[in-house]
Write a structure and sequence with these properties.
The protein has about 300 residues and is mainly β. Helices cover about 5% and strands about 55% of the residues.
Length: about 300
């Protein structure tokens, strides 16, 4: 059954690539990090996590140290994604320079050719590189710009490339409420064969409120509540998400969230956890019922 499903997926992708109007989805619609995933996909107003650069380029504008992050995801059908992020901050430079690389491998499928032979090919592989510059302004604001290059290949014979830009800003409404907004994936079109299709351009905005708490008996505990709105320009679809994060003494983290997507019958429910010890931070996120995507993700961040 497993092989059959993957073979069917390969045939469908071949049909899409051969058509004049449909282009298979790319890594751009599935990028996230374990912290954001655990909070239902909220990312617009969060900060400090390098993997958030994929959602808001201003997310590390006010980072106080250099951070490297490794993150991986694995799907139920064997597909996988991995990303490496590095945010470099020096006290002598006015901003933060970040680079990122993400690779996705959907896996391989076998199908019968018109000659009656079985052929095994890679379903889809995407390679995405990013270069970001962000800068803080005032006492709490920041902005960022990201240039991304995408290389996508399906069934070992159809490939396409595109270059795009993201832009984002973030700041504070009050002492404990942050806001953020970003535009994503504005650039050239993907052209696998004769027809070029637009990138999944989108608009994102969000807010996050942080409160001092002591539910678990820890001095200095905080509760962060965040909401996000994402509008897909090409599909004309709005996606809404909300989540929360409880920090116990800045060491242990519990997270949960929900995503409302009109393209899905049921809301996506997520949760996760994290550990922060010295220079090291380990984060885990899981989404329930996400069979087509990546139900689980795990990330490690190191400050230096």
């Amino acid at each position: 059954m497993y092989t059959l499903v993957r073979s069917i997926a390969g045939v469908l992708l071949l049909a899409q690539a051969a058509s004049a109007s449909v282009v298979p989805s790319t890594i751009l619609g599935r990028l996230t990090g374990p912290r954001s995933q655990a909070m239902g996909g909220t990312a617009g107003a969060l900060e400090g996590d390098p993997t958030l650069l994929w959602m808001n380029p201003a997310s590390v504008a006010r980072i106080g140290e250099s951070v490297a992050a490794l993150e991986g995801q694995r799907g139920v059908l064997g597909q996988g994604m991995a990303q490496v992020m590095l945010s470099w901050h020096t006290r002598t430079s006015p901003g933060v320079l970040s680079v990122g690389v993400s690779v996705e491998d959907i896996g391989a499928a076998s199908f019968m050719t018109v000659e009656g032979n079985m052929r095994r090919v890679a379903i889809q592989r995407d390679y995405l590189g990013a270069l970001n510059y962000s800068h803080g302004f005032g006492s709490s604001g920041g902005y960022g710009v990201t240039v991304k290059l995408l290389r996508s290949q399906i069934l070992d014979q159809f490939s396409a490339s595109a270059i795009m830009m993201d832009g984002g800003v973030a700041g504070k409404l009050t002492d404990n409420v942050r806001w953020g907004a970003a535009v994503q994936n504005f650039g050239t079109r993907l052209k696998y064969m004769q027809t070029a299709s637009p990138l999944p351009a989108s608009l994102r905005c969000g807010a996050a409120a942080e409160y001092g708490m002591s539910i678990l008996g820890g001095a200095g505990d905080t509760l962060t509540v965040a909401i996000d709105g994402l509008y897909s320009i090409n599909e004309r679809v709005g996606i809404f998400s909300g989540g929360g994060e409880y920090s116990w003494r800045g060491i242990g983290f519990l997270r949960g969230g929900v995503k409302m997507d009109r393209r899905r019958a049921d809301p996506g429910i997520s949760c996760g956890t994290g550990l922060h010890f010295g220079r090291y931070r380990l984060d885990y996120g899981i989404t329930f019922g996400d069979l087509a995507g990546y139900p689980q993700s795990l990330g490690l961040s190191i400050a230096f």
